[in-house]
Design brief:
heterodimer; A: about 200 residues; 2 domains; 11 helices; B: about 150 residues; mainly alpha; Flavocytochrome C3, Chain A, domain 2
Chain lengths: ~200, ~150
């Protein structure tokens, strides 16, 4: 055998460079299966964090924002269609979703350090959190709103007079985006001092 | 046996007298807007009235009547943090939104001092301004506006 003349390192090297066909197959097959398991597991875990149950499993969300949201039209309405937490707060497409999820690691840190673990702390932080979310939505042209509220499908004849006035001008021209006017539609507002268009 | 029958008869008579008396006392013999329902019973609730989404402005019926709101106001908050009404009706915003602007009288404090913005005593819009649902009046009303408003 040629291998026996090569010494330990040489033998290991040839094992790596010239694997037998079966070994090659096994490596590929194992890699394939492991790939499915890890990728599937990763996505499943990711989707679990994208549910309302997951969001309100923390009392910070359950006791504050969720209770406020339950009184609004995105929870309770005539047709029973609902928008849950991730529908507005997590992008739908993969790239933006992953970016948002990585950014959310800061929220995990907030949970561990108890940044908003009492009502008082939550109220104190409400404005900075709201401003951050409004900024995000303004920058992506209210992408999460538009997942459901498609401008092309809006029938102005079905809208109220006041809605038509705004939607056919500022929204149609792209001068304004949904969040510019529709703030505080699912949660209570912070002190609106200094926020454009508010009093 | 006879004694027992007498007791039963007496008790049932007493109960019926008390029952009628209680019913009579509750109603007081008066029929109100609630109908002939007794106080301890629930009468059937009327269906909730819808506020029309948008309509033409209401004419005023008497002098100094706070103008009525001609649109829905579901979810419009007026509190320490924000005032949804003023985001359209304030002097800063009314031109952009095409809304009626808040009257100058709202800038005055109770001591007659003019402020540059809405006075705290006039901040809570819904204390005076209310939307109107499409509901029939419960009682007949023959109120007539004063001449200048009636025309």
């Amino acid at each position: 055998m040629a291998n026996q003349n090569k010494g330990l390192i040489g033998r290991y090297w040839s094992l790596l460079t010239n694997p037998t066909r079966i070994a090659m197959g096994i490596i590929l097959a194992l890699g394939f299966v492991a790939g499915i398991v890890f990728w599937g597991g990763f996505n499943t875990a990711l989707e679990i964090t994208n549910t309302e149950e997951f969001c309100i499993s923390c009392h910070e969300m359950e006791a504050n924002v969720y209770q406020e949201y339950r009184e609004t039209i995105h929870y309770s309405n005539r047709s029973g269609v609902r928008a849950t937490c991730p529908d507005c707060h997590v992008p739908k497409d993969w790239t933006h979703k992953i970016i948002r999820k990585i950014a959310a690691s800061k929220e995990v840190w907030g949970k561990i350090t108890g940044l908003i673990d009492t009502r008082e702390k939550f109220v104190e932080h409400r404005k900075s959190m709201a401003l951050r979310e409004w900024k995000r939505m303004k920058e992506n042209d209210s992408r999460e709103c538009r997942n459901c509220h498609n401008f092309e499908s809006m029938d102005f004849s079905e809208q109220g007079r006041r809605s038509v006035t705004m939607h056919s001008t500022a929204l149609a021209s792209g001068e304004k985006t949904c969040i510019d006017c529709h703030k505080g539609i699912a949660h209570e507002l912070p002190d609106m001092e200094g926020v454009e268009g508010w009093h | 046996m006879k004694k027992r029958l007498t007791i039963v008869a007496f008790v049932s008579l007493l109960t019926s007298i008390i029952a009628t008396n209680v019913a009579w006392a509750d109603m007081g013999g008066v029929q109100s807007l609630r109908g002939l329902e007794e106080l301890d019973a629930n009468n059937t609730a009327d269906s909730l009235k819808r506020v029309p989404r948008d309509r033409e402005t209401f004419e005023r019926d008497y002098l100094h009547q706070p103008p009525l709101i001609p649109h829905q106001i579901r979810g419009y908050k007026v509190d320490l943090n924000s005032n949804k009404c003023l985001s359209c009706h304030s002097w800063q915003n009314y031109k952009k939104t095409g809304a009626t602007k808040v009257s100058m009288t709202h800038f005055e404090t109770r001591d007659g001092q003019q402020l540059s913005d809405v006075s705290p005593r006039r901040y809570f819009c819904n204390q005076c301004h209310v939307p109107q649902a499409d509901a029939k009046p419960l009682v007949d009303n023959n109120f007539n506006s004063v001449k200048p408003l009636a025309d």
